[in-house]
Each structure stands twice: as structure tokens, then as C-alpha cells.
Amino acid sequence: MSKNRYSTFSKHNCSSLKFEGIDSPVAFIDCEELHAPVKAIFRDFRVEHVKDNLWEDSHITLRKVKEGYERSSHWLDEPVVHYDPVDSVCDLTVDLIHAFASDHPGFLCLHSAAALFKKGLFLFPSTYRAGKSTLSLHLAYNGVQLFTDDALPVTSNNNEGMATGLYPRLRLPLPETVTENFRKYIKKRIVLRNDRYCYISLDQDEQPPLGTTAPIRGIILLNLDLNSNAPNLISIGKKDAIKEVILRNFARQNKALDIVERIYMIAEDADCYKLTYANPDRAAKLLIKHFN
């Protein structure tokens, strides 16, 4: 799609937000009401209003249309539309991660949760609906710092994981396996929600600021099995972990061979495990027992 698609909309209300660490501002056309919910899901992360921005040159554009909020970007083949503003904000974060990776050549970006135990930073690379966000929040609830619940940048110079400053997002409704105390904890921390998702605010002792880095000491593959009893953590071969991490990398600006070599280096310095579990609270406590 041409970046000048909206350049003739001079009569429309056009504004832009500049996100820390991302070069090009995000353009908002007739949808300034999205500024507040977008800002609400970040902590220790500068999101600034940009005056006199050439918004038609933005890499990401949101526009109010009859059907809802339309987003176009360099990483979409076609614009996407979400009727609900929270869904639109949720989906925007995907492009923001792509933009960050594009603006930081050499960084990897993994679809993975990451938590900082006393033994170091452990990754949870996984597909959608594997329970990683719910498990991540249980780790934070039990005192483990959460770098991210969904996407982890990995630095180019020393392969360290970097905290994103983006609050974790939970899918609703919460699973029946969570405790009443956990439900109360989540209810008190909600900063943005609709019927499908909610974003949860964490304090600095629960989530480090954007840019905080730590060496990667472990990789844990998740196997959410609702028929399992007690959670089970077993050591696995590095090849299995490497394969999973390669599949979860979505920073494609680097050469494929370089990506594979980097991931091999990460796995070489990491202990690799598989966690099979049904109850996220019991799983979190098992991990804390092993790695704290």
C-alpha cells in the first residue's frame, strides 16, 4: 500500500504519537481517542505527542472508519479493521514490536515470555494459547520479575533479553484453575480491558523498566495439558529448544544463517526444560522452587 494513501485527508483530525525506541511516529487519523488507551498499557516508557509530524510518512497509521479502526503498516499486506478500540490497541502492539526490531538492526525478537529468577532470565517460547501470559502473571504474583509475557527483544551485542515496558495482557475469561486470591490480584491491576482481553499493571519490583537487560540462562518449553495432575519439569535436549526458539523469532531483517547461529549461541549458555502443567499457580511455584 502506498504510504501516501492518506495524504489528501487535510480536513481530517490528524495526530501522531512517538514511542520510545521507535524512529517513526504512529499516525492517528480521526481517532485521537485511542491516545489514552495506548499510553495506559506502558510503564516507564515514553509515549509523546508529536506536533507538526509528516504523518503521511509514518510506518504505522490508524484511521477511524465506519467499521471501526483501520490500521495499515509496512508489516501488513492489507489494512486490518477492529470495531473495538481495545482490540485495535492490542493489535497495534504487534506492529510496534515489528517497528522496534526494524529500527534496531541485529536484534532478535522472540515470541516468548521471559521471567527473571535468581538463577537468571528464563524464556518461555510458545505458540498462542499455550498459557504463557497466565503463567507469567502467576510468576509476578509470586515475586518473580517479569520482562515480558509475549515478545522479547534480544540485544545484538551480547544476546541478552531486554524488558519491553509493555504491561502483560491476559485473555478473558480467566481459566477455572486460577485461585480466588489471584482473581482479586488481577482485578485490582486492570488498566485496560474489554470482553476478550485485559492489561495488567505491574510495579517496578514486578516488571523492570524498558531497556533493562539480563543474560539468558534458561529456555522452558510449555506444554499446557489440562488432564495432567502435578506440574512436571524435565530437562530436554538443546536441539528441541533451539528449534522452538527459531520458530518464534519474528525479526526477519537479519540473515537466516545469522539468526540460527545466534540462537545456537543462546541455547549453548542456557539450561533447557519442558514444563507440563494444568494449574498455573502450582506450575509457577514449581519453577520458583527450582530457579530461585
Task: Please write out the topology.
Blueprint: E1 14-19, E2 26-29, H1 35-40, E3 47-50, E4 60-65, E5 68-73, E6 80-82, H2 85-103, E7 108-117, E8 120-125, H3 132-141, E9 145-148, E10 151-154, E11 161-162, E12 169-171, H4 180-189, E13 190-193, E14 197-200, E15 213-214, E16 216-224, E17 232-235, H5 238-248, H6 256-268, E18 271-277, H7 280-291
Helix pairs in contact: 3-7, 5-6
User: What are the secondary-structure elements, in order, as H or E?
Assistant: EEHEEEEHEEHEEEEHEEEEEHHEH
Net shape: globular
Beta-strand fraction estimate: 25-35%
CATH class of the largest domain: Alpha Beta
Describe this structure in words.
The chain is of the alpha+beta class and 292 residues long. It is built from seven helices and 18 strands. It has two domains: 90 residues, no CATH class; 184 residues, Rossmann fold (3-Layer(aba) Sandwich). The strands form four sheets. Strands 7, 8, 9, 10, 16, 17 and 18 form a seven-stranded mixed β-sheet that branches. The longest helix has 19 residues. The N terminus is likely disordered.
